[in-house]
């Protein structure tokens, strides 16, 4: 569903733009056969260009293993679009579009049945060129369709020669095939005015071409024009599928007969299609446009309906899920740290309130319970990390590095401070952290909203990266962030129990969108 809607949107834009330029540049020229080919080319280009795809997206590069680790944590902590959250209006739009296509396709088939029934009810005769003449007693305007010419008995007796010459010109040029193509285009683009205008313009060109052929065969132009006026007064077309003798654009037909032939070099104006096609392809390849279209093309009609059904969860089940999450939220211990930097003394307190944690849980959407297991794991890890990170930061002097603090959930006698300067334990004792001890310092954990302190070196090895179930030996900046579906992080003993000693620096589990599908 999504892919087809994207195709229709692109095709609609191409059809409107190409027809507009044709109307401005070529519609007044007398190259009727050339203009006919130009209109058919507009339809073909409008169908073909949406299939041309240029890829311009490049994965963003981030330098450093620590920066990659922090970037992944930030991505994990960002709001994740939940399953089934795609707007239902897209499915409704598809239903409306499909209904319009069915309606106009039914009208198209009804016109075809009318023609077939009328041909079967008339008297047949085969002309010298193999054309089948059908004479009927019904009072209808003459028209041609495929190899058949349908004419009333009255018109046959009054002006049969001129009318037959006109309709035979339609048959020789295979104008009925053009009407088939334009009719199918109008069914697919029933909501697009450009499709109907293009079909009408193609019918006009057919009549110009047939009129030119009649006059070229020796029929008097003035007599032929009077015949057109006579047949056009009060007459109605039988069907839009056929090429009718009394086409409604009578003034344009007569004007085109009297108009001076256009300069042959005017055909070069059709070359406008080349830069115009390049511009449309480049526009569709623009990252901002292509990303939005890809979101639509990835959606299936059945998935949208299923997601809406899954949202109909009883209130009791939602409340039960929320209560369970409340019970899992445990308060963290309060820690206080006093630090002395030069002549300034600062005091930082960290406090994680249980009520605040409960309120965060209550605000969570119950729909998140239905998310995939890996997404839930990432969210839980990030929530735990956020509860532990010290939110208050003090900016030191420009010549001193920033001081970052982290509190472990497990009870500790003291809090390790990353940076240079002095540290005071809870008992009030102050001891110095010398610059020469810099290699011995490392952070307890790297949090998603923290920046590593300047000048700090890490003793732990690089984290092990598992990409789609396989160990990934490359650098993280080679992975396109737009293709990541979910990620989770394993740390400490839990990582080493599963992956062994090579997971001493932690494990990053990444699942791409291609595998998750």
From TrEMBL:
One Pfam match: Peptidase_M56
| PANTHER family xref list | POSSIBLE SENSOR-TRANSDUCER PROTEIN BLAR (PTHR34978), SLR0241 PROTEIN (PTHR34978:SF3)
- Say if the entry is tagged with keyword Transport: yes
| Family affiliation | Belongs to the TonB-dependent receptor family.
> Which residues does UniProt call coiled coil?
354-388
The record's section on SUPFAM superfamilies has: Porins
State the name under which the record lists this protein: M56 family metallopeptidase
One GO cellular component assignment for this chain's record is:
cell outer membrane
Q: Where in the cell is it found?
A: Cell outer membrane
- The Peptidase M56 domain is annotated at 148-257
Keywords of the record: Cell outer membrane, Coiled coil, Membrane, Transmembrane, Transmembrane beta strand, Transmembrane helix, Transport
Q: State the organism of origin.
A: Parabacteroides johnsonii
The residues that cross the membrane are 6-25, 37-56, 88-110, 266-285
What the entry lists under PROSITE patterns is as follows:
TONB_DEPENDENT_REC_3
Q: Which parts of this chain are annotated as the region Disordered?
A: 322-346
Membrane topology note: Multi-pass membrane protein
């Amino acid at each position: 569903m999504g892919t087809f809607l994207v195709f229709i949107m692109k095709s609609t834009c191409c059809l409107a733009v190409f027809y507009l330029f044709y109307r401005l540049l070529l519609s007044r020229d007398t190259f009727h056969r050339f203009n006919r080919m130009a209109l058919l080319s507009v339809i073909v280009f409008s169908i073909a260009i949406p299939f041309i795809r240029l890829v311009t997206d490049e994965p963003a590069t981030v330098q450093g293993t620590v920066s990659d680790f922090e970037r992944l944590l930030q991505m994990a902590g960002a709001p994740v679009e939940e399953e089934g959250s795609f707007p239902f209006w897209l499915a409704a739009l598809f239903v409306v579009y499909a209904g319009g296509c069915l309606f106009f396709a039914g009208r198209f088939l009804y016109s075809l049945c009318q023609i077939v029934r009328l041909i079967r009810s008339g008297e047949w005769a085969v002309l010298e060129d193999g054309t089948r003449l059908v004479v009927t007693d019904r009072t209808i305007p003459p028209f041609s369709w495929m190899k058949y010419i349908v004419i009333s008995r009255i018109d046959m007796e009054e002006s049969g020669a001129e009318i037959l010459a006109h309709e035979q010109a339609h048959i020789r040029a295979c104008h009925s095939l053009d009407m088939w193509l334009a009719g199918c285009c109008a069914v697919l683009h029933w909501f697009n005015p450009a499709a109907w205008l293009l079909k009408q313009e193609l019918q006009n060109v057919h009549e110009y071409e047939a009129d030119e052929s009649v006059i070229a065969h020796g029929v008097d132009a003035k007599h032929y024009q009077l015949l057109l006026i006579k047949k056009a007064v009060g007459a109605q077309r039988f069907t839009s599928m056929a090429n009718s003798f009394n086409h409604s654009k009578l003034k344009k037909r007569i004007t085109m007969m009297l108009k001076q032939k256009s300069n042959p070099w005017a055909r070069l104006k059709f070359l406008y299609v080349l830069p115009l096609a390049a511009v449309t392809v480049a526009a569709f390849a623009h990252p901002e446009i292509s990303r939005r279209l890809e979101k639509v093309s990835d959606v299936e009609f059945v998935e949208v309906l299923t997601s809406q059904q899954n949202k109909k969860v009883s209130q009791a089940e939602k409340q039960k899920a929320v209560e369970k999450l409340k019970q899992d939220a445990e308060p963290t211990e309060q820690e206080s740290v006093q630090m002395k930097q030069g002549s300034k003394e600062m005091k930082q307190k960290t406090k994680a309130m249980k009520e605040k944690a409960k309120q965060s849980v209550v605000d969570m959407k119950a729909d998140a319970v239905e998310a995939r297991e890996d997404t839930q794991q990432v969210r839980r890890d990030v929530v735990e990390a956020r509860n532990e990170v010290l939110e208050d930061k003090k900016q030191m002097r420009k010549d001193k590095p920033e001081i970052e603090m982290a509190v472990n959930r497990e009870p500790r006698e003291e809090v390790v401070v990353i940076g240079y300067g002095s540290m005071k334990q809870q008992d009030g004792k102050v001891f110095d952290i010398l610059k020469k001890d810099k290699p011995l310092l490392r952070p307890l954990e790297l949090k998603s909203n923290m920046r590593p302190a300047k000048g700090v070196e890490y003793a732990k090895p690089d984290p092990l990266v598992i990409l789609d179930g396989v160990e990934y030996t490359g650098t993280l900046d080679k992975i396109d962030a737009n293709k990541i579906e979910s990620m989770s992080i394993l740390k400490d003993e839990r990582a080493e129990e599963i992956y062994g000693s090579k997971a001493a620096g932690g494990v990053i589990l990444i699942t791409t969108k291609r595998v998750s599908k």
